[in-house]
Structure formats: structure tokens, C-alpha cells
Design brief:
6-stranded mixed sheet; Rossmann fold; 6-stranded parallel sheet; globular; alpha/beta; homodimer; 14 strands; Dihydrodipicolinate Reductase, domain 2; 8 helices; 2 domains
Chain lengths: ~325, ~325
């Protein structure tokens, strides 16, 4: 792989910081690392390979000479800078949801639909965290028989709200233990010792935009345009990894044994058979690593062509930063 | 209602203690309250209507003269004493799972199948906590059209493991905040800042016994012997109330509006329309009260005869102690 010039748009957030770590860990050859952020964060530094690198304020002309820009900013900022990035000739790998449903923008999980990345016109979208983790867990089944529908319930960590999500949970835990009142600003109500069955904005069909991502993004990533997904997104007081309980209906019946073999063989997945005496993962087991861990595969008792399973994955890693860097690596390896 | 002589078998546990509070709160006329427990707890006292009452060690002859015995002990102790209770002439309302599937023992949620209580032969079973809360939330829909199947994912509080569950979660939270190692003895691994997708014992079909309760008990309570339920039981770091995300398929299509009306009208349910600006409940909202709160009713996108909803209820109250006392009250009111 040739040496790459890589920009990180949103280098100071939880996902941007993780992208730096993953680039290091994967040994991606980098001749220039250019951290970019909003005016508020510019002037600070980030650490990359033991060097402190000054963060520049992102502007239209910030992307000149770069091969790739990894995006870890919100939709508005992503939309604002995407044209300038494409214009500069860099490939923009965007973690926001701004372009995920744009037919001109491939939406990619490398293990599942890596080839789609090569159809890009300058932008590649990185999927939603819960979608990536769930789709990784079921992609092996989809190879055995097309998936018709899924019913998914998530158990999503506070990391989905970035560093301020961590801080709010930790502060509330201290308050609860001290018998003090808690304050909520990141989440709609107390998350410590509670769960909140609502993430995102409510749409006309009464699902949230977060919940609809699994269907909308799943259709594109699995190449199943008729896939139906009923998803309930729930925030739980967990720091990093997301978990999903998912019931999958396929065209033909898949046995539990076949499903276990498919998950075991699927790149990027780990079938949990004995994890400290348990045959299932918990979010704590899967934090700070890239694999999606799958357990509790069993027959759906309500539909003979159904299976139900449990999966966990680090939402900042495979659910965001690692998947983006894996897309970059896939592109760069082919030159 | 005549004055009642009531025994509580297992008076010192979390559920037994709550039964005492509920008897007080409901203003049940009690001429004698007889707290009974294992040898370990006997000799201590419980507080009932500002009186301290000595706890007696439960023995074969402990039940003489009682009208009702409320059971809050494990299956083994329940099985051991049930014959003596029935022999004494008292009605035994048992919170354990020992008799729940016994065709001679009615399994009762008063709002749903209260009439079944009157077919008892001395024992009435109180259902599993998650089953009661879920069935309360869907019982109004079942009146509109029979339920064919449900896919349920639970978010179960540590209270399911009694006082020692509370203590383990609180101790682990302190350890985590102090940066110390946690120890787990009640739960199979750390529950603080984690979720554990396994409650109970694994059966041959790979579901746990806890997960199968919703189907087995739901069939009896809803009088739907062919009901199919795929349930995934997950422990979450919440103190008291259980939450369940459930997708319900009925024989005919029920609209969201019809479902909302049915839940709103159902005794013991509260349809959440505006709870501090939220249109859904969280477990913290529903702790220390008896209603099952329901929100987020929406169409199942994977099945046109399906609906999906979220419900929360206090598992020690409606999920255990309150439901048992409500059965007692129902029986006593009819004399």
C-alpha cells in the first residue's frame, strides 16, 4: 500500500479519536495526517504515532492534496464540506447519515458489500452503528437464504452520544449513589439505573429515524430491497458496546446448526461458545475490539423460518471508526 | 369484607416485605397477620400497621386458622408446605413457579382472568413478573382479536434476584466508579454498566426456563392454548421495574388507534401520552406503583397484522406482591 495522506474531519470527538487509534493499530501507511475540526476545537492538538499534530479549522480549502477524508461530524457539517472534499479529489468516507440513502453514494460494510465501495463517485457512507453490528451478525445467514424480515430490539450504549454521553452516565451514577438528584441534558431523562426506549426523532409512522435506519440501510447493504425491519431502539446504561436481540425470517428454513456454522465462518464475527463459561456475549466483553460477537442462536418459536439471536459489538469501533478505516484500507489496497 | 387471618410464607424477602406494604395500602381488613419464614429468619420481626410482629419458623402446623397464605418463597419450599396449607383450609396464593402449569391450579392476573381464581382447589398461582407485565399490556388487544404470537425482548431489573440483586448492582457501581474490580455472585457476570442476555436455566430448545414462561403462562392466562412466544430475557442495571418490547400478531389487523383506545380503557394499564414531555415510560417512572405503563404503540413493519409496543411495570408490585394481594382481595370480596 502506498503512503496515504489522510484527513480526519471531526478529529476531536469520540469517533474521530478512535479513527486515529485504528489507523495506528491497523498499520495504515500515512505520510500526512491532517486533523480538521470546527473553529471551537481548532488550535488544539491530537496525538498520532507519538506526535502531537495541530488541529486545523475545517474550511473549503482544507482538503487539498489528501487521498482520503474520514468524516466524524454531524450531518450538517458533513453536507457542508462534502462538495469541497470531492472537488479536492479525495475520497470522503463519511460516518454521518447525510448520504447513506443517496443512490449515488455506496453504503458499505466491507465484509458484506465491500465491492460496492468501488462504485463511489467521491463519497462512501459508513452505516449506522446498530445497523452495522446487527447486519454483521445476520450476514452469514443471508448468504444461506435471503432475509425477508427482522424484528430487532437494541440495547444501545451511551457512547452513541459521544463523550458527553459517557460523562452524563458517570455523573448520574455518582449522584444516584450519593442519594442526590440527577440532571439530564444529553438524554431525555435519567439514564443511570434506567433504560430509555426512544433514540432519535419520531417519524410519521411513529418509529424514530434511528429505528428506521436498520431497514433503510439493511436493504442497501444486504442488497435486499424488499427487506422489512421492525426495530425498537433502547438506550441502556452501558458505556461502549451496543447489543441487539434480533429475530430473522429467511426464505427457507435455516437450522440452528447451519446458522452457527455460518456465523462461525463469517469474517469479522465471533460465535460465542465458551466465554468464561457463558455461551453468550455481553457488551463489556466486546468493548475495545472490532469483532461482532454472536450467541444464543435458537429457533424462532413463532415462525418456522425464523431464528433469533443476540449480538454485541463496540459501536465506536466496528459501529463507526473501525468500519470507516476498513473501507479506507479496502480502497487503498486496490490502489 | 370480613376480617381476614393472613399468613405470609417468606415474609422477610423483597416480595414478602412488599406484600405487607400492599396489604396495608389496600386497606385489607386483617385480624391476624402471621409472618412465617425459614429457620434462618425466624425470631426476627416484621412491621405491619405500626406493630412489630414476630416471625415464626414455618412448619407443617403453622397454617391453622388462616384464611389465606401469601407465598413468597422458592419452588422447593413452596412445594414442601403447599399440602399443609391446603390441609389447613387456607387458600394458598403462591408466587413461586412450582404450580403455575398445574392444570388443577389456576394461574391468575385478576384484570385478565380473575374468574379462574374461583376454580381453585386450595392453591392459586401468581404468574412470572415479566409475563404479568407483558400480558397486562397486550390483554386489551387480545379482547379485540385473539393473539397468535408474540416476540418479546425484556429489560429486567435486578430486583428479580431480590435484595441481594440490589446489593450486587450497587456494590458493583461503587467499584466501577472507584476504578476497582467488581465481583459477581448473584449474576453470572458484572451487571453494572452491562446487560446480561441470560436469565434462568437453559432448556433443550436453547431458550431458558424464564423465557418459556411467557408462552407457557400466557397460554393459560389469556386462554389461548396455541399462543406462540419467542422471548429473550435480558438483565439490565435497573433497580426495580421491568420493561418489555413486544411485537404482537393478532388474527385480524388492529389499528394503532384501536390499540391505544384498548390500552387506555384497560384496568390496571396506563397509556403514556405525555409523561414529562415523553410519550413512553421508563422503568424509573413506574417503580413503587401498580399500573403497567404502555407507550410507543406502532405498526409492526414486518407483518400487517402486527403491532409493536413498549411497557414497564414494577416487578415487585404488579409483577409479584400486588398481583398476589389483588387475587386475595378478589377472593375475599366475594366471601
Amino acid at each position: 500500500m502506498k503512503e496515504l495522506r489522510i484527513g480526519i474531519l471531526g478529529a476531536t470527538g469520540a469517533v474521530g479519536q478512535e479513527m486515529l487509534r485504528v489507523l495506528e493499530e491497523y498499520g495504515i501507511p500515512v505520510s500526512e495526517l491532517r486533523p480538521l475540526a470546527s473553529a471551537r476545537s481548532a488550535g488544539g492538538t491530537v496525538c498520532f504515532r507519538d506526535r502531537e499534530i495541530k488541529i486545523q479549522e475545517a474550511a473549503e480549502d482544507s482538503f487539498k492534496g489528501l487521498d482520503y477524508v474520514l468524516g466524524a461530524v454531524k450531518n450538517g457539517m458533513s453536507r457542508a464540506f462534502a462538495p469541497a472534499i470531492v472537488e479536492s479529489g479525495a475520497v470522503y468516507i463519511d460516518n454521518s447519515s447525510a448520504f447513506r440513502l443517496d443512490p449515488d453514494v455506496p453504503l458499505v460494510v466491507p465484509e458484506i458489500n465491500g465491492e460496492d465501495a468501488f462504485t463511489n463517485k467521491g463519497i462512501i457512507a459508513n452505516p449506522n452503528c446498530s445497523s452495522t453490528i446487527t447486519l454483521m451478525a445476520v450476514a452469514g445467514l443471508a448468504k444461506l437464504s435471503p432475509i425477508k424480515s427482522m424484528v430487532a430490539c437494541t440495547y444501545q450504549a451511551v457512547s452513541g452520544a459521544g463523550q458527553k454521553g459517557f460523562d452524563e452516565l458517570e455523573g448520574q451514577m455518582r449522584a444516584v449513589l450519593a442519594g442526590e438528584k440527577t440532571e439530564s441534558s444529553v438524554f431525555p431523562t435519567q439514564i443511570a439505573m434506567n433504560v430509555i426506549p426512544f433514540i432519535g426523532e419520531e417519524l410519521e409512522n411513529l418509529y424514530t429515524d434511528e429505528e428506521m435506519k436498520m431497514q433503510n440501510e439493511g436493504r442497501r447493504i444486504l442488497h435486499l430491497p424488499a427487506l422489512k425491519v421492525s426495530c425498537t431502539c433502547v438506550r441502556v446504561p452501558v458505556m461502549r458496546s451496543h447489543s441487539i436481540s434480533v429475530t430473522v425470517r429467511t426464505e427457507r428454513k435455516i437450522s440452528v446448526e447451519e446458522a452457527r456454522d455460518a456465523v462461525r465462518a463469517y469474517p469479522g464475527c465471533r460465535l460465542v461458545e465458551d466465554c468464561q463459561g457463558r455461551n453468550y456475549p455481553t457488551p463489556l466483553d466486546t468493548s475495545n475490539q472490532d469483532l461482532v460477537w454472536v450467541g444464543r442462536i435458537r429457533e424462532d418459536l413463532t415462525d418456522e423460518r425464523g431464528l433469533t439471536l443476540w449480538c454485541c459489538g463496540d459501536q465506536i469501533r466496528k459501529g463507526a471508526a473501525s468500519n470507516a478505516v476498513q473501507i479506507l484500507r479496502l480502497m487503498a489496497e486496490r490502489g
